[in-house]
Amino acid sequence: MIRQALDQLKHEIPLLDYLQAHHWQSTGRLSRGRWMGLCPLHEDHKPSFVVDTNKNLFYCYGCGRGGDVIRFAELFHQVRFPQALGLLCQWRGMAPLLHETTRLYIMQLEHHAEAVAYLHHRGVRSPELIEHMRIGYAPGGCLRGWLTQLGYSHHALHQAGLVTAAGYDAFTYRIVFPLENNLYGRSISATAPPHRFLPGSKGGLYSWDHVRRYPEVILVEGLFDYAVLWQAGFHNVTCAMGTQLNACQFRQLCDGMRTIYLAFDADTNGSGQRATQALAHRLREQRLRVCIVELPQGHDPNSWFANGADARQFQALLEAARS
Ligand SMILES: [Zn+2]
Fold first, then answer.
1. Helices then strands (H, E): number in the chain?
2. Which of 43, 78, 113 is the last residue of a domain?
3. How many A from CA of 38 to the centre of ligand 1?
4. Which of 7, 63, 223, 263 could form a disulfide with 42 if both were Cys (CB 3.0 to 4.6 A apart)?
């Protein structure tokens, strides 16, 4: 990439925006346009990371590293310069594209009875919840036309993973949940792989900005688990979209003193239980309080609620986990 294009990229991605999108928070202002906070690049206990929004540069007095947004992406994602450029270009281009895609899928939901029936079958009923999670439906065969009409090229859509090389929708017959910089699609057809994400990171913990202020947080595996708990009034719930937390998600859970309730699936083969134990161990090493929620055998929070359990019963599980 030539010098001019690099400057353009840096200009279009203010460092502070990029940091905040990766959950960095300032703890105070030093002077005009200069902010201080914990360093996201090393285990930092007192704020030593300075961001200068006038110069679009950062410097850490703890680990001694500094630079521009490209340097930050290299260090934060632990990639080389060309990969960092790729991530930044993708980040810059994805946000509006995902916004339009999500908008279309949300509009589709009410026109497809099979999608609504699937949600009911999974215990998802409340319009308030559907609006909160911005749940949509990808029927297939409509995305490319919609987005090209808005001016996106087939190449851009293919690169984002939204359509196949042949131009078909990548998400077809899927309930779609927008994530920070990705989409999760749950297939409602029995023949397709159940879970699908766009290429790239699944991002941080679901809805973390809302959840992080609670002293007690419930962590679940899947977005349908999240959905039924939120619907039942547990708004201190978050989701890792799997049992293996990525580095960003782990850092988020450890960014303050809190109690974490792990409510993963109670699989008959024991894999959910093993993942729970391993994560509990890692979190306790960070001096967090961890409580393990024991669901009835063979259930996850979603299947348990979909089978008629209620908030009072789940509350009893939380209380049992505490003791
Ligand atoms: Zn540092």
1. 14, 13
2. 78
3. 8
4. 63
Give the Å distances, CA to CA, from 170 to 36, 178, 185, 217, 246: 42, 15, 10, 34, 24
Considering the domain boundaries, does residue 85 fall inside one? no
Report the separation in Å between the CA atom of 211 and the middle of ligand 1, taken as the mean of its atom positions: 26
Query: How many alpha carbons lie under 13 Å from residue 108 in its C-beta half-sphere?
Result: 25
Tell me the pLDDT tens digit for each residue of 286-305. 999 999 999 998 899 999 99
The Cα–Cα gap between 223 and 234 comes to 14
- One domain for residues 226 and 308: yes
Residues 9 and 47 both lie in one domain: yes
The boundaries of the domain holding residue 155 are 93-197
**Centroid of ligand 1 to alpha carbon of 34 (angstroms):** 16
CA of 61 to the centre of ligand 1 (A): 7
What stretches of the chain show up as alpha helix (H) in DSSP?
3-12, 15-21, 69-77, 81-109, 113-121, 127-133, 143-149, 154-159, 208-211, 223-231, 247-253, 271-285, 301-306, 311-322
Between the CA of 43 and the centroid of ligand 1 the distance, in Å, is: 7
66-67 and 136-138 beta bridge pairing: unpaired
Q: What is the C-alpha to C-alpha distance for residues 84 and 165, in angstroms, rounded to an integer?
A: 25
Q: Are residues 124 and 217 in the same domain?
A: no
Cα(64) to centroid(ligand 1), Å: 6
**Strand pairing partners for 29?**
35
Angstrom distance (rounded) from CA 301 to CA 218 = 11
Query: What's the whole-number mean pLDDT along residues 68-73?
Result: 96
Assessment of whether the complete model's pTM goes beyond 0.90: no
Q: Where residue 21 sits, what CATH number does that domain have?
A: 3.90.580.10
Cα of 59 to ligand 1 centre, how many Å?
8
The rounded Å distance from CA 36 to ligand 1 centre is 12
Q: Which pLDDT score, from 0 to 100, does residue 1 have?
A: 64
Question: pLDDT: is 103 or 203 the higher one?
Answer: 103
Cα(21) to ligand 1 centroid in Å equals 18
